[in-house]
């Protein structure tokens, strides 16, 4: 029964829409499990054939790019100090870090930040406040979101292809692997910053 319930909920017509909403929300609230949703559907796509893996990647990329663009527009319209939370010392430090990184290499930073949750928010807000040329920003963010979506879905797909046991095994294992890779990226990023 649990396998049938999991299969029905993740192959239903709303699975891609729900994943997209989670990925979009993840742009603003880092506690929303956007990455987990993409990885899980990537695993599910390979182990059951539905939804198609290409659809998981396209929907995740579109939602990720849209979320990043929304943060960019907030930074462009609102700036970086309008709300009290933006003036907190840790936020000011993160925004300062984002500004210095953007000045040293916009493309590299946008691609790297796509994989680091809070850095992604700070970078996109600062990119908007810095008035980075919108067509250039949109092109870079679209490429970064596509790469991120393909990577997240591929982690799930690879685990599902390697492990026997169908979605009940592939989905949780792929989520654990994706979270582990995320933690590793966070550790490496912190060491590089310090």
What can you tell me about this protein's structure?
With 194 residues, this protein is an all-alpha fold. The chain is 80% helix and 0% strand. The protein contains nine helices and no strands. The protein has helices at 2-11, 15-26, 34-48, 53-78, 89-104, 106-113, 117-129, 134-162, 167-193. The mean pLDDT is 79.
What's the pLDDT, averaged over the residues? 79
- Ends: how far apart? 50 Å
Main beta-sheet annotation: none
Strand content: under 5%
**Share of helix among residues?**
over 70%
How many distinct helices?
Answer: 9
- Rg calculated over all Cα atoms: 17 Å
Sheet/helix structural class: mainly alpha
SSE pattern: HHHHHHHHH
Estimate the global geometry from the Cα principal axes. elongated
Taking pLDDT < 50 over at least 5 consecutive residues as the criterion, the unreliable ranges are none
Q: Would you count the extended β strands for me?
A: 0
Features:
194 residues; 9 helices; mainly alpha
Itemize the secondary structure elements and their pairings.
Elements: H1 2-11, H2 15-26, H3 34-48, H4 53-78, H5 89-104, H6 106-113, H7 117-129, H8 134-162, H9 167-193
Helix pairs in contact: 2-3, 2-4, 3-4, 3-8, 3-9, 4-7, 4-8, 5-6, 5-7, 6-7, 6-8, 8-9
Give a brief description:
It contains nine helices and no strands. By secondary structure, it is mostly helical.
């Amino acid at each position: 029964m649990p396998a049938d319930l999991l299969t029905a909920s993740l192959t239903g017509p709303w699975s891609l829409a729900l994943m997209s909403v989670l990925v979009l929300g993840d742009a603003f609230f880092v506690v929303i499990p956007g990455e987990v949703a993409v990885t899980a559907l990537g695993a599910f796509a390979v182990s059951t054939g539905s939804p198609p893996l290409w659809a998981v990647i396209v929907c995740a990329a579109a939602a990720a790019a849209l979320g990043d663009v929304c943060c960019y527009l907030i930074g462009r319209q609102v700036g970086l100090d309008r709300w009290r939370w933006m003036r907190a010392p840790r936020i000011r430090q993160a925004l300062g870090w984002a500004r210095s990184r953007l000045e040293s290499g916009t493309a590299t930073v946008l691609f790297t930040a796509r994989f680091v949750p809070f850095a992604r928010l700070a970078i996109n807000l600062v990119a908007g406040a810095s008035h980075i040329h919108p067509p250039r920003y949109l092109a870079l963010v679209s490429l970064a979101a596509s790469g991120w979506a393909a990577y997240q879905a591929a982690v799930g797909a690879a685990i599902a292809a390697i492990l026997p046991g169908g979605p009940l095994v592939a989905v949780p294992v792929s989520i654990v692997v994706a979270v582990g890779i995320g933690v590793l990226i966070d550790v490496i990023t912190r060491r590089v910053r310090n």
